[in-house]
Amino acid sequence: MRLSHPGAPFQGIPPEDVFFAANDQYVQLGIGYVILNMQEEMYPERPLQLFIDIQSQISARHLLLGAVLGRSEQLRAQYPQLKGRIYTEISPAQFDLTTFYTMNGFVMNDAREEHIFPLPSGPAQPPMGCEFASVPLQTVQDQMAFLARLNRHRLSPILHDYLTVQMQQPYFLALGFYRAGHPVAELLMTGASSDTSALVMLYVQRDMRGKGVGKSLLQAASELLRQRGVRSALTQVFSANAPQMGLMRSLGSSRRRIINTLPHIDFG
Question: What contacts 24+ positions apart, CB below 8 Å, involve 219-224?
């Protein structure tokens, strides 16, 4: 069996981070790659997030795993002071992959989950010195700046095409708390009907966390949606992310399904 790199970037990934596996007849058996993602906002205690993905026949899985883990170690060595993890995402129904990763030292205590929660009621309390306002989205530059702020707090980015589609939905909201024009917290909600409302993203700047700012912003948005007949919303959270799960508990949410599990190896 043989390993090789592509001759050019693969789907935007540097060629040295991508591996092709082939048999001795040069028939391709699979592909694996690693993507380095700094998450100082979402995971301040483990900011170095190394996502790996392996799509291959069973016979090439171990070879590709060894390659991507070796490359992950090289990337990790560039940031020796940082804690982090090597992780992937798989469907909970992929039992063979669950076994494969656990047998190779990955743990399974994180998952991407879908929750439903009743829209919170009560008066919103903006932080002292802050104003509540819509996010300016009149220009492409405004939209890209908003996405950049949201994506600093996400594992998977929201793309501009997605935002432009959602801006046409009848239940679209982009709101925030601002101090002297600078965002303290922002959210993005959307929906095609009153029973499909979704909280796509909510973030709070690190120095303002733990003060009820996120829930207060969600209350302000919920009041606008409730006036239009919305009573609940869906969202996605990570089960190992304590702030996200704490917000869900405070809202009385219920888990509808596990979307993906995240086998991972912590380091540092």
Answer: 219/120, 219/121, 219/122, 219/123, 219/124, 220/124, 220/126, 220/132, 220/175, 221/173, 221/175, 221/187, 221/189, 222/119, 222/120, 222/121, 223/121, 223/124, 224/173
Let me know if residue 62 belongs to a domain. yes
The CATH number that applies at residue 212 is 3.40.630.30
pTM as predicted:
0.88
Pair of tokens at residue 157: 């980015």
Is 77 part of a structural domain of the chain? yes
> Same structural domain for residues 81 and 145?
no
Number of H helices, E strands in the chain: 6, 13
| 146 in a structural domain | yes
Quote the tokens at residue 158: 């929201």
Residue 105 maps to a domain: no
In sequence order, what are the residues at sequence separation of 6 or more whose Cβ sits closer than 8 angstroms to the Cβ of residue 128?
Answer: none
Q: Check residue 121 and give its pLDDT.
A: 86
pLDDT at 231: 94
Number of domains within the chain: 2
Q: Are 38 and 78 in contact (CB under 8 A)?
A: no
Within this chain, do residues 79 and 163 fall inside the same structural domain, yes or no?
no
Q: What is the pLDDT of residue 41?
A: 87
Output the pLDDT for position 125. 84
Alpha helices by DSSP H, listed for 123-212, are: 140-151, 160-166
What's the pLDDT score for residue 46? 94
Give the tens place of pLDDT for each residue, 164-178: 999 999 999 999 999
Task: State how far the Cα of 67 lies from the Cα of 63, in Å rounded to an integer.
Answer: 6
Q: What is the pLDDT of residue 8?
A: 95
- Residue 229: its pLDDT value, please? 93
Instruction: Report the candidate in 51, 50, 237 with the shortest Cα–Cα distance to residue 153.
Output: 237
Can you list the residues of the chain whose pLDDT is less than 70?
Answer: none
